[in-house]
Amino acid sequence: MKKIGIFYGSSTGMTAEVAQEIAKKLGVADGDVHDVAKSSPSDVAPYDVLILGSSTWGAGELQDDWYDFLDGLEVLELKGKKIALFGCGDESMSDTFCGALGELYNRLQKTGAGFVGYFNAEGYDFDESPAFIDGVYVGLLLDNVNKEELTENRLNEWVAKVKSEI
User: Nearest to residue 52, comparing CAs of 83, 76, 27, 81?
Assistant: First the structure.
């Protein structure tokens, strides 16, 4: 079985809650769920699959704790590892919705990791997103502000997709 590590950045607790929910659905132990504010990039070493989550702030920026962690992560050789992305945002920010995922995706391209968990954004209501790259959404986009009633089904669908791709 592939060893899964979940790494998230959360300012209000919403992304942390989603990380815990994903962990439950995937059977990931609490010790394998990491707040990037309290982690170092080398903590990804024992994992075959990295599930990375960030909320989006301002004009599509990463959650603050991600910047130093990502600076270190993007210079690592992650060949052979799989990365799945999830993010929380507010789709009323219609031109930057879940933009942090786009930044994670773009900056981690040079690590050699493979990406899984691309997601269908049907039912969302926004104009564009930096997480929409080459015709697909690079991960799970959640809006627990405006569309919380859709979160559980989206989580279940995405987790099933990630399981099938790892």
Answer: 83
In 3D space, the residue among 135, 133, 37, 140 whose CA is nearest the CA of residue 84 turns out to be 140
pTM of the model: 0.93
Alpha helices in 38-145 (DSSP H): 66-73, 99-107
Q: Is 118 exposed, middle or buried (0-12, 13-18, 19+ CB in 10 A)?
A: buried
Q: What is the pLDDT of residues 33-91, one digit of tens each?
A: 999 999 999 999 999 999 999 998 888 789 999 999 999 999 999 999 999 999 988 87
Provide the sign of the torsion angle of the four alpha carbons 132, 135, 139, 141, taken in this order: positive
CB 73 within 8 A of CB 111: yes
CA neighbor of 30 nearest in space, from 55, 6, 47, 8? 6
